[in-house]
Give the backbone structure.
Amino acid sequence: MVLPVVCMLLLLSSSAAYAQKTKPPSPSFSPTPAPAPAQDFVNLTDLLTVAGPFHTFLNYLQSTKVLETFQDQANKTEEGITIFVPKDSAFTALKKPSLSNLTANQLKSVILFHALPHYYTLADFKNLSESGPIPTFAGGSYTLNFTDASGSVHLTSGWSDTKVSSSVHSTDPVAVYQVDKVLLPEAIFGTDIPPTPAPAPAPVPDTAPAADAPTADGGSSSPGSAPGKSSSYRIISWGIWGHLVLAVSGGLALIL
């Protein structure tokens, strides 16, 4: 009676051990990586309105529709954008050449000329100074040259020679730098840069010659003509002759 029970227990234990060995492994799930945080949308209109006196440049961005191009580059690409923004006073100081004489396409190219299709920090410009002309958003021959002078970034476009005076915004993917002058491309304005006009000479006072002083007899005397005998001169002459006649007469009277 005991032996069958022992055999039954052994059979059950071996069946349980076999079941544990043959149990399929539970599937393992690797954790799904969290999505990268979306970049903050950069509104260039708000940025330029709040940052400084850039109303003139912003108006040109809007009127030429270039604002949409820059906005898409800033928020829809991985390259980012670098914009050089002249102050309002830079446009006021621009007398010759004037942007008012440009065609619509030329004006649009001038505004596109103020941006690079890549995000650059101030430290990056040191390497750009060794790379030769850098293409701008205007494309083609619309290029800028950069030089780094003791940490100061200078830009040369042929017509314009200016520098970065301050960093308005520099957070990837958008960099905005203030410049002192409007950037004028050679592709539009040529290479014959007009010299700085010399100061106008001081006006010479237009003085009329002094009128001849009238003489006592109604005539006028001039330096080139012999002076006429006045009535006072004739009176003096008669007085001298009178004295002589009296002296001669007195002498004759003494003799006689």
